[in-house]
């Protein structure tokens, strides 16, 4: 079990599908950013499902893997990120 | 000195200015993602400059602060992120 920060950059055509998939595994943080704990099996499953949605030549998803959420401190400036949640 | 992962979500009108500012402080990783070490003074300076560019009601910048880059492991799926670099 590790804590993940995930940032995706995918074509508009696939954003809704990717966003909905990610919401089943992680917490949404900002327009293209999700966070949360994943067990290894969950990570494997998520990677397989993402692979089946994204276009490898065009879309990119970066995973940051941390031992726990205790090692990271996050803050934001500007608009509160959560107001995007109703966009999708 | 801490290691930062920064993800921005700003209006198209301001993306170039934000991207160029961030490139002076951090390494670009993916379309809206930068990483790197910042001393407290640099962070303060960067926050002031970002504040002067972004529209607080519309743009959002999330900072993840880590004790070092040794605690985070990152990987990506899909297209290599760096091919966006020539976009700006």
TrEMBL record, chains A, B:
One of the protein's GO biological processes: defense response to virus
Listed InterPro entries: CRISPR_associated_Cas2 (IPR021127), Virulence_VapD/CRISPR_Cas2 (IPR019199)
Keyword annotations: Antiviral defense, Endonuclease, Hydrolase, Magnesium, Metal-binding, Nuclease
Record bears the keyword Electron transport: no
Keyword Repressor: no
Enzyme Commission number: 3.1.-.-
Gene3D superfamilies reported in the protein's UniProt record: 3.30.70.240
Function text: CRISPR (clustered regularly interspaced short palindromic repeat), is an adaptive immune system that provides protection against mobile genetic elements (viruses, transposable elements and conjugative plasmids). CRISPR clusters contain sequences complementary to antecedent mobile elements and target invading nucleic acids. CRISPR clusters are transcribed and processed into CRISPR RNA (crRNA). Functions as a ssRNA-specific endoribonuclease. Involved in the integration of spacer DNA into the CRISPR cassette.
Name this polypeptide is given: CRISPR-associated endoribonuclease Cas2
Family: Belongs to the CRISPR-associated endoribonuclease Cas2 protein family.
């Amino acid at each position: 079990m590790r804590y993940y920060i995930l940032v995706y950059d995918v074509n508009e055509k696939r954003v809704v599908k990717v966003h909905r998939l990610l919401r089943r595994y992680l917490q949404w943080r900002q327009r293209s950013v999700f966070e949360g704990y994943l067990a290894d099996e969950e990570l494997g499953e998520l990677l397989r499902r993402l692979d089946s949605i994204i276009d490898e030549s065009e879309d990119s998803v970066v995973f940051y893997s941390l031992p726990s959420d205790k090692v990271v401190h996050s803050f934001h400036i500007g608009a509160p990120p959560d107001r995007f949640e109703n966009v999708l």
